[in-house]
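Risk register update: the risk of archive-format incompatibility is retired. Evidence:
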Amino acid sequence: MAGRLNERVAAEAREIQKQQDVPGMALAVVVEGKQFVYPFGVRAKDSPQPVTGETIFELGSVRKVFTSLLVGYAQAQGKLELAALASRC
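Archived output:
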């Protein structure tokens, strides 16, 4: 399984890097509780430093995506009702 997973993640990462003009990235995958970290490319276009599993990336506007994902997850879990009035709280 690990070999196929490695190949699939590498293929997807290369495609994302190509389509989005991303110099580097790190992907994490969890399968049956086991964590796999896959670093790809370099830290910046003007940097030869490779991405590692320890590289820290800036989030920038990605925070909004994470926030909306968590809000949607909370709604799906029944912990949040987006249509509810704020006065109900």
